[in-house]
Design a protein that fits this description.
CATH architecture of chain B: 3-Layer(aba) Sandwich
Structural class of chain B: alpha/beta
Shape of chain B: globular
Largest sheet of chain A: 2 strands, antiparallel
Order of helices and strands of chain A: HEEH
Distance between the termini of chain A: 21 Å
Number of strands of chain A: 2
Number of domains of chain A: 1
Structural class of chain A: alpha+beta
Mean pLDDT of chain B: 90
Largest sheet of chain B: 5 strands, parallel
Helix content of chain A: 25-40%
Mean pLDDT of chain A: 87
Strand order of the largest sheet of chain B: 2-1-3-4-5
Low-confidence stretches of chain B: none
CATH class of chain B: Alpha Beta
Number of strands of chain B: 6
Helix content of chain B: 40-55%
Order of helices and strands of chain B: EHEHEHEHEHE
CATH topology of chain B: Rossmann fold
Radius of gyration of chain A: 12 Å
Largest interface: A-B, 29 and 27 residues
Shape of chain A: globular
CATH superfamily of chain B: Response regulator
Number of helices of chain A: 2
Low-confidence stretches of chain A: none
Strand content of chain A: 5-15%
Distance between the termini of chain B: 32 Å
Number of helices of chain B: 5
Oligomer: heterodimer
Strand order of the largest sheet of chain A: 1-2
Strand content of chain B: 15-25%
Chain lengths: 70, 133
């Protein structure tokens, strides 16, 4: 799923993006105080604003592209 | 219409799920044990399962192990706190190649709705603005 997501990001932004991936099972402390993460998988776009999230299959090109430009 | 299964020993939680999801026109089955959940899965076709982690008798992890013998592809959300103590057993089953998703407990009505609509209708989803929450 991350591989597909990186392909979508690369197509949208070239190399001008930063993607941080947190595996909750390995690093739960990183999301314990993060109320925006309520389920897996969650993709949060911090920039450009507004900050938004989607939950569910983040490898779907149409869905993620629409999300990135929202 | 997609059918959703709730497996949770807490009757208040089951009732809350049912109220929310039936309001959204989903067909919902809700049972109080892993054993009952497995029986439902053997006899029905579900689009999504919410499975409580901590239950008396067969817990969520044991239930998921058995569930995967019946259906490898069914989307299962394990509902749990995101604390290390809760997640240890889940790490083990993931290492065994058993797939699942996680949802944070407790889920509000809106959060439950957001998860269900994104999983069942991913093509029609709308993203959630969280700026300024």
């Amino acid at each position: 799923m991350i591989v597909e997501l990186k392909e979508i990001l690369k197509k949208q932004y070239g190399d001008k993006y930063q993607l941080d991936v947190i595996e909750i099972l390995k690093f739960p402390e990183l999301v314990l105080d993060e109320d925006d993460v309520i389920a897996t998988p969650t993709l949060i776009k911090y920039s450009p604003p507004p900050i938004r999230r989607i939950i569910g299959d983040i490898s779907q090109k149409q869905k993620v592209t629409k999300f990135l430009i929202s | 219409m997609s059918k959703i299964l709730i497996i949770d020993d807490d009757s208040l939680v089951r009732h809350a799920y049912e109220l929310t999801l039936e309001d959204l026109d989903y067909e919902v089955d809700a049972v109080e044990s892993g054993e009952e959940g497995l029986e439902k899965i053997r006899n029905n076709e579900y689009g999504l399962v919410f499975l409580d982690l901590n239950m008396p008798g067969m817990n969520g992890v044991e239930t998921l192990r058995e569930l995967r013998k019946i259906d490898k592809n069914l989307t299962v959300y394990i509902v749990s706190g995101f604390h290390n103590a809760f997640l240890e057993e889940l790490r083990k089953i993931k290492e065994d190649g058993i797939h699942f998703e996680l949802a944070r407990k407790p889920l509000s009505r809106d959060q439950l709705k957001e998860i269900v609509e994104n999983v069942i209708h991913p093509e029609a989803h709308s993203s959630e603005e969280i700026d300024g929450e």
